[in-house]
Structure formats: C-alpha cells, structure tokens
Amino acid sequence: MYQIPIDPAELSVLYSMLEQISIPLKNKTNNRRGFPLHRACTFGLTKGRFSGKTDLSRMSKKYPEIYNEMIRIGNLFSFQFTSIHCNYNTICPKHKDENNTGNSLLLSFGDYGEGSIIIDEKKYDANCCGIIFNGSLLEHYNEEHTGNKYSLVFYNS
C-alpha cells in the first residue's frame, strides 16, 4: 500500500471541468450487486458490454479535454493505467474490483469532509492523496461524507 500526496491546486482544473457536466446515474438496473444508486462513469479503455470490443469510452469521446486532464493527473503519480473510473458522491459498500488487473490508484478531491476509504479494515484519507493498492485482492469501501466528492480510480482492465 502506497500513499502519495498531491498539491490540491493540481486538481482545480479537473474539478471545474467535472462541475460543468452531469455524471451519469448508475445502477438503475442493479448491474453491480450491493451498490446503491450512484453517479459514475469511466474514461479510457472500456470493453463493450454486448460487443466485447475494447475501445475508448463514450465519456472519453464526448469529453476529450476532461479525459486528457485525467491522464495528466494520473501521470503525476507515474502510475500506468488503461482506464479511469470517476465516482461522484458515491458511497461504496464492501467489495473487490474483480475485473481489474494488478494495482489501482485511488484519488479523491472536492469540497467535502469525512469520507475515508477503508482498505483491508484500515482507514485511509484519499483527499488529495493517491492511494495505490490491489483492489481485486483487498476488500474496500468508503464512509459517508458531507459536501461534494469526486473519486478517481486509475486501473488496468
């Protein structure tokens, strides 16, 4: 497990960009067991649900400037990734990221309080701090928070 702090100013442009769009509402059809209704989307490479084809995500094509800013931020950590999952005010129940390969980088930011992530029953603060861990092996979830919180998960699918 690695924790790498980042200057909050590095995230201000992305925060402003994300505030201008609507993050899609997910889990209307309960496609991820245990997750409540939440707002999330994926940038980078994704695998088509029906076609099975790997391609750049719909959100990456719709918002290339946001995608490029996310890539810039991921590169600040010298972390290799193919995809970036963006959560907005999402409370995740205990889970493992079964489809991810190897380590993931989690980074949260915004105008929020509380909301730590619990990884393998240990509490971490990901606010402007990248946390690298293997989400496919380690069970994790996050606590309730107040305010507006974005969480990015950089990973290899």
Residue-averaged pLDDT: 93
| Portion in strands | 35-45%
What is the helical fraction, as a range of percent? 10-25%
Total tally of structural domains: 1
CATH topology: Double-stranded beta-helix
Structural class: alpha+beta
User: CATH architecture, please?
Assistant: 4-Layer Sandwich
Number of strands: 11
Q: Low-confidence spans: pLDDT under 50, at least 5 residues? A: none
Rounded to an integer in angstroms, the radius of gyration calculated over CA atoms is 15 Å
Name the helix and strand elements from N-terminus to C-terminus, one letter apiece. Answer: EHEEEHHEEEEEEE
For the sheet with most strands, the description reads: 8 strands, antiparallel
Walk me through the topology.
Blueprint: E1 2-5, H1 12-19, E2 25-26, E3 38-47, E4 54-56, H2 58-62, H3 64-76, E5 83-88, E6 104-114, E7 117-119, E8 122-124, E9 129-133, E10 140-142, E11 145-155
Antiparallel strand pairs: 1-9, 2-3, 3-4, 3-5, 5-11, 6-9, 6-11, 7-8, 7-10
